[in-house]
# Entry
Amino acid sequence: MDRRTFLRAAGLTGAAALLTPETVFAAGAADWTLGFRDVEADIAPTGLTRLRGKAPADLAGALVRNGPARFRRPGGSVGHWFDGDGLVRRFSIQDGEATLAARFVDTPKRRADTAAHAVITPGFGTAPGPGAAVGGPDDANAANTSVMMAGGELWALWEPGSPCVLDPVTLETKGFKTLRPDLKAMPFLAHPRREPTGRTWNLGLAGHRAIVWRLAADGSLEDAQLIALPRASYIHDFTATERHLVIVLQPWIQERGGVPYIAGMAWKPELGTQVLVLDKADLTQRRVFDLPPFFFFHLGDAWEDKDGTIRFDACIDDDPRGTAAAGEQLLRGVPFKGVAPPKLGFVTLHADGKADLQRFETVAEFPRSDDRFAGLGRRFSVHAAIGEVGKPAFHGLAVRDWKTGRETAFDFGRRHLVEEMVFVPRPGSAEEFEGWLVGTSLNLDAQATELHAFDARRVADGPLVTWRANTALPLGFHGIFTA
Amino acid sequence: MRLLPLLACAALLTAPAAGLCQTAVPDAAAAAPIPAPAPAAGDASLALVFPALKSHDGVLMVALFDSQAAWAGGKPVRVAFVQAASAEPMVQIHDLAAGTYAARVFQDLDGDQRLSMNPFGLPVEPYGFSGGAKANMGPPAFAAAAFTVTPGDNAQAIALR
# Structure
C-alpha cells in the first residue's frame, strides 16, 4: 500500500504534511483523526453538491458555525483542542442549493502564531512559547467556540475574552467588541441565554467572581453587574428560565491562576455540584442547591413550573478525564482510555430547596432546543448521540421528548462524525419543534463535510436532504441559523 | 482561561498630579504630595514621541525610570505629560544624566490621572513601554524596555496599544 493510499484509508490525508507513515503506524492514530485536521487557508464561497433528497421549499438562510481549525505549526503546536484558531463556517441555503464559505477570525493570537511559525500563544491547555506577549485575554483570544447575532453584527464567541465582531456575510473580522469602555476585555462566555424577546444574558468568569451581562435585542449593553460565586468552578455554560439565572458549579475548581488554564485546575468530587439560582430582577436574591458530583460542558434551556420547580437537561460526564483534561491527545488520534462519552442528564430544582439529578444511558452532547421557547416550558431537546468509549465524536443525533420520555434517533454509522444540530422553525409555525434540524457531519470515507436537514419531528426518517462539500472541515463546536 | 491578575496595576505606572511627582497605588486615597526627587542633573535631553496613536483624546502621561528597582517600585526620576490632541504629541525632558533609562506611558482618556482598569484588573486605556517592550502576563522588566541616553539630544518612540 503506498503512502497516499494508506493515509487516505486512515482518514489522514489532510494531516499528511505533518505525519509520516512511521508516526501514524506508531501512534495507531484513529480513523476520526480527520476531525482534528488543520485548515491552512480561508475557503471562498463554493457550491456544495446535493447528494440526495430535496431541501424543503421554505428552508432558507445560513447555518453559521465556529470551531478551532488550526492546531499544528512547524515550531510547535497547541496543547489542547480548544486552543486552535477559530474558523467560522457559513453554509448558505437558498433555492434548494447550498454554498460553503469559511474564514479564520483574524485575531492577535493568529497573527502572533503565524509570524512565529509556532503556537506561542498560551491557552486552555497550551503553555506560552518563546516571544509570547499576552497583555490581556484578547491577545490570547482564539475566537473559536460559537457565534451569535447581535443586532446586525455577527460575533465570534470564545470564553475568557471579548466577542469578536465579524461581517455576517463576508465573515471579515472587524475587531473585538467593547460593550462599555470601562468593561473592555471582560470575559464573555460562548453560551449566552437569549430570551424569546431577544434580551440576552451572559456571564464572564474570573475565579470566584463573575460579571452578569444583560444585552438588549440589538446587542447594546443594558446592564452589567459583578457577583461573587461560592466556588471557582470551570463554567463553560449556564442556563436560565424566564425569571432566573441558573449557574451550575461543578467540582472542577481553579486552585491557581496562570496558563495553561488546566494546569491550575483540581477535581474535587467530595464537594459535590452546586447550583446557584439568581433572580434576574434582583441578582442579590440567590438560592443554592446541592447535587451529586458530575462534570459537564453543556446544559439545555431551563424552565420553571407554576410551583417554582426549575427543570433542565444536561450532558454529563463522571469527571473531567476526557476532553477537558486530555484534549491534546485527540489531535494525535489517541482515544481516551476507559472514558465513556457524556450522557444525558436531567436536573430538577424543587421549590423546597431539594434537588435531583436523573442520569440516562443515552450518549448525548451538544444539546439544543427550539429557541422560541427558551426559558419557557418545553418538550423537546435534540443532541448529538451514539458514541463509544474513548471516542471524542458521535455518529448520530437524537430527539428527546421530556413529556413522554420517548427518544427518536438517526444513526449515520461509524463513518460519519456528527456535529451539533440546530433547530430552524418553519416560517409561520407556532408549535414547538415544527421545523427542521440543520447540521453537519464529517464523512470519513468521502473525506468531506456534509450538510443535512431533517424534519425535526421525524429524525428517524433520516435527512430530507444532504449536500456534500469538496473539503473536510475539522469538527466544530456551536452555531446558529440566521435568515 | 483566567489571566488574573494579569498586570500588577499598582506597579504599572504612577499618576503625576499638578506637576508633583507622586507614587500612588491606584486604589489608595490621595496622600500628602511627596516632593519631586531632585532631577538627575546632566547634559542630556530626551524627546519622546508616540507614533500611530489610535486616539488623540486625553493626556499622555509618561514616567521615566533609571533602574529596575525604580521601575518595579514605581519611583520615576521624571514624569511628564502632554495633551494627545496635537498632531504629533511630544514630551521633552531636559538636564538628564547620561545613562540607561526605561519609560512607560498611558493615555488618560477618562481624566482620572490613573491607568484605568476593568473590574478584573485589565487596563482599559492605551499604554506602552519604551524599547518596543511588551506586557506578557505582567509589565515587562526594566531591561526589556531599557534604552541608552548619551550627552546631547536623544529621542525614543513609544507605541501605545
